[in-house]
Amino acid sequence: MKPPAQALAQLRQALGVPWHNEALLHQALRHRSSGPKHNERLEFLGDAVLNLAVADLLYQRCQSMSEGDLSRVRAHLVRQETLAQLAHQLGVPACLVLSEGEARSGGRQRPSLLADALEALLGAVYLDQGATAAQRVAAGWFANIDFASSAQTFGKDAKTALQEWLQARGRGLPKYEVVATHGLAHQQQFEVACQLGDDTRCGTGLGPSRRAAEQAAASMLLEQLLDAPEPGHD
């Protein structure tokens, strides 16, 4: 079983890597439910590569940031929710190779599975292209984040941090709404939208509970506000 050709082509373009051994790319997209040659070993490698790449990126771009702040920002960037959102942006869900049962239960939308696949892809890039290329790919995923201005925010609970950011600017509280549920009852994933009454931007998040999904949605919306604050509110 292989990913759909068009979806795979779009993912290759998004990654920007000229693969020498395309078998590594295919393996990175294979969940363990699909057979023996799955992506877990690549995920293990990619996790280490990702942490090093993000640490190097933060060290170079945040010269005045303390060790504690560096650690908090890195933890935010490599957490499951953030990686799952990046996987969605790259088009990973459509490329995953899953068993029929895993697909029916909502595996393509499961944050843990998407985060694992993203790490596996980075591990595959490392093996195929080397450390420099892998770090370049990872750095591109986080290129638009203003690390310095959001270091303290990243260390907080996302819903609390968003509320504090809004209150400091005299803005109203966000509204959270469950917009969809995915998977079977015993493996249900909630999809939540977080939106402000005076803003068209919206954060969305997935999680195994409504609370977890709300946290992911709040985190996404807060990052949007930090990256491009609305005129007159910063």
Summed up:
The protein has 234 residues and is mainly α. Helix content is 57%, strand content 9%.
Question: How would you describe the overall organization of this protein?
Answer:
This protein is mainly alpha-helical and 234 residues long. The protein has two domains: 5-144, Ribonuclease iii, N-terminal Endonuclease Domain, Chain A (Orthogonal Bundle); 158-227, Double Stranded RNA Binding Domain. 57% of the residues lie in helices and 9% in strands. It has eleven helices and three strands; from the N terminus they run ααααααααααβββα. It has a three-stranded antiparallel β-sheet, covered by helices on one side. Strand 2 (189-195) and strand 3 (202-207) form a beta hairpin. Helix 3 (40-61) packs across helix 8 (131-141) and helix 5 packs across helix 7 (111-129). The longest helix is centred in the N-terminal third of the chain and has 22 residues, at 40-61. It is globular.
Biggest sheet layout: 3 strands, antiparallel
- Extended strand count: 3
> What is the CA-atom radius of gyration, in angstroms?
18 Å
Q: In the CATH classification, which architecture of the largest domain applies?
A: Orthogonal Bundle
Which regions are unreliable across 5 or more consecutive residues at pLDDT < 50? 229-234
Q: Could you give me the name of the CATH homologous superfamily of the largest domain?
A: Ribonuclease III domain
Strand content: 5-15%
Number of helices: 11
Distance between the termini: 50 Å
CATH class descriptor name of the largest domain: Mainly Alpha
What CATH calls the topology of the largest domain is Ribonuclease iii, N-terminal Endonuclease Domain, Chain A
Task: Give the fraction of residues assigned to helices.
Answer: 55-70%
